[in-house]
Amino acid sequence: MNRLHRAWLVVSILACGSGPAYAAAKKPEPAPAKKPAPPAAPAKLEVLRWSWQGWVPGMFCTKIDEPTDPHGWNDNFLCSTHDLGLRWSSLGPINGMVCTKFFEGSDPDGWSDNYLCAPKDYGFRWSFDGPVGAMQCLQITEPSDPHTWNDNFLCWPPAGKGPLNAVSFPKNRTDLINLIRSRRSYQSYLEIGQGGREGNFDAIDSKIKIGVDPDRKFNAAFQMTSDEFFAQNKQTFDLIFINGLHDAAQVENAIVNSLKVLNKGGTIVMRDCNPTSAAGDVWKAWIKLRSTHDDLKMTVINFDGGCGVITRGKQTKLKLPAELTYPGLDAHRKDWLNLTEVDAFLKDLASQ
Predict the structure, then answer these.
(1) With a threshold of 0.85, does the pTM exceed it?
(2) Across the beta sheet with 208-212, what order do the strands follow?
């Protein structure tokens, strides 16, 4: 084979792409990096969890960010199974709250006035030099930030030795009311049928708090019936607890009047909506409202006798029989009441 023939053969092989030299020269395009999916909700109680991948479903989450930092601080959240009332500020401490400064000394991108604030002292300590000995610590990191966010920790007292570890599911209506108030930052509270102050009223943590009860021995702010109160009332409220007479007609009247003075985004809470006997008929007022209003969102939480929670929203109107009886309720309890468990309600509350 002469030189010209050999040269022609080599060129033909390379042009067909079968030669090793050509194969080695062309490299495949790298696949685009995919951001990990947000973590799933925990199967068991976690006091706190950190996520740099977005909100954790089913948990109470507070966004942690610094608007002037361009390095990935747009989907970072500090989350908890329970509502701790946490708030974040990138403009200094929040008045009236206990605040812990978040910072990284080597980061020049605005981390000089950032604070995690709480309604009470949970014993938080911040470290940018590794965990604090003898404390429980959670690493706070953003992998895409080059400014040494790899040894920053939020710490708190060890298990059993601090208020953070005592947080638990609401055990009764009082816990529920305080939880809703804290989560939605409500400022005003009205209690219809106050009764003894120590039973519920005094335990509600609200800036503005008004009780109504005609019995003078309870020393309510308004010593009159609910109808008399609403007839002369000029105020509106974020949160209303209907705790009065267990009569369906009176309860229905109280709900209708309460809706008229409920602030936008407000909540009404009721008691004894899920009875275990035919003794009470508050449930009749509840399901009648569900059958006539599609502009409300109504849920009964399955604890403490059935705590009803009403907000403005959307729901499908119920189709009810001509006569409401306790056996009928017993047969259709979940559907008629829109009955839900505590953990499901907390997940829904966290997502709002």
Answers:
(1) no
(2) 208-212, 188-192, 237-242, 262-270, 307-312, 296-301, 339-340
